[in-house]
Amino acid sequence: MLVSSKELLLDAQKNKYAVGAFNTNNLEITHAIVRAAEAQKAPILIQISAGALKYAGLEFLPMIVAKAATEASVPVAIHLDHGPSFEVVMQSLRAGFTSIMRDASKLPYEENVAEVRKVVEACHAVGVPVEAEIGKIGGAEEHVVVSEREATMSDPDECVRFVADGGFDFLAVAIGNAHGFYKGEPKLDFDRLDAIRERVDIPLVLHGASGIPDHQITEAVERGICKINIDTEIRNAFIRTIQKFVAENPDQIDPRKIFAPGIEAMQAVVEHKIEIFRSAGRA
Ligand code: 13P
Asked: Does the Cβ of 179 fall within 6 Å of ligand 1?
């Protein structure tokens, strides 16, 4: 069933688990995510980025995801990932998204607040919750590219101010997490997370969770992360599995047969994440 992310994240916050937010670009990834959530009886967010909207068509991909969400036996919210502008946010609301991120974290503080407030006013008018980010999460996620030098961790004092000034619903934090593949083993700054958690009472979001070892994810959930974003590991499972299948079956030209093992591999990744997020059985 299609739901708002607010009810999902407030329940996660209350009961100390995290809801998985999984990125999709197409029909196959969407199927894999929903099948995993149903198998694990878990609530989920399906995320669409501006890049995915551009690739698949502003209306096509949300229509596929909305249909999958409506028919799913578990609660599903449709989330705009890293909304780059007011325009894309408005287009997403019109396309039926039930959750929005406005990412203006690259801008100076006051401009970030102003951009977020504009979106909050519009989204809250139609009952849609908003995620915003403070600090700069490193790595590359579509149009969001932050070099190691530019990356800055979220400052707990600034988080408190940002939540009060911005009026949004979920806070994405930079605590040593980065988008894309990590170069070495990532090390989340749990003291920083604790300091933010103690002072901020809205649900906290962890981006860049692909490649973070399971034990650190579990600890992040125990310390109050309520939404966890995964994209890279899903893509990796899809493409690597297809590459292997095609290498082993060079005469196969039926896309359905080629994609099938890729969908299964993605489903396995998503099911595992749901387990370590402790959201299995919460639907
Ligand atoms: P990964 O690149 O680590 O999968 O992160 C995805 C993400 O944070 C999307 O917003």
From this structure: yes
